[in-house]
Amino acid sequence: MKSIKRVSLIVILLTGVFYFYPAWAHDRPDQGKLLPKFYPAPEFTGLTNWINSSEIRSMDELKGKVVLIDFWTFGCINCIHTLPHVQKWHQAYKDQGLVVLGIHAPEFNYERKLNNVIGAVKRFGLTFPVAIDNKFKLWRAYKNRFWPAMYLVDKDGIVRYMHFGEGRYQETEAAIVYLLNKKYPASSG
Fold first, then answer.
1. Contact 114, 132 (CB under 8 A)
2. Residue by residue, what is the 3-state secondary structure of 151-173?
């Protein structure tokens, strides 16, 4: 009877390890794991009313930079909780080649009004560029479905990391640092 209990306990423990393994293994670039290459970052489409910067027309303008695309809306409490981290990363890494782009995609009608978005950007102390995506064109190009949603794009324009919702701030920052420090081969041509 004791051996059956022991075997059952071992099976439960191993099941737990394998069940939770993906959650902590895939988002740990600080452990030397390479970030996967998902797909080329979609071109900017449908973005209007840039706040804190002049219009950035294309991902091509950002080649050679690491880009953090942050889909958010000011009425979303989860988004509000992530914004201090996004602002911190902008401040810490902008001089090392990180470009943070806040893409404001409204959930409710009052979030569509430019003056309300400008007020929220000021209220939250955001200094990175923010563009309005009221028609969800870039949102759909990324096949996004969540607020907040972060997409990290490498210097070659490839999406290398994604995170949805709150949390995983250390893993996200580790991915930023990894991509900023990654050596890219000289382009041939």
1. yes
2. EEECCCCEEEEEEECCCCHHHHH
Check: pTM over 0.85? Answer yes or no: no
Q: Give Cα 80 to chain centroid, integer Å.
A: 14
* Residue 146 three-state SS: coil
73, exposed or middle or buried, with CB in 10 Å at 0-12, 13-18, 19+? buried
Predicted local confidence at residue 34, as pLDDT: 74
Q: Parallel, antiparallel, or unpaired: how do β-strands 98-104 and 130-132 relate?
A: parallel
Residues in the chain: 189
Starting at the earlier edge strand, list the strands of the sheet with 98-104.
Answer: 39-40, 158-164, 149-153, 66-72, 98-104, 130-132, 48-51
Numbers of helices and strands, H then E, in the chain: 5, 7
Determine the topology of domain 35-181 in CATH: Glutaredoxin (3.40.30)
CA distance 74 to 86: 14
pLDDT in tens, 23-57: 433 444 444 457 999 999 999 999 999 999 999 99
- DSSP one-letter string for 13-66: HHHHHHHHHHHHHTT-GGGTPPPP--EEPPPP-S-EEEESS-----GGGGTTSE
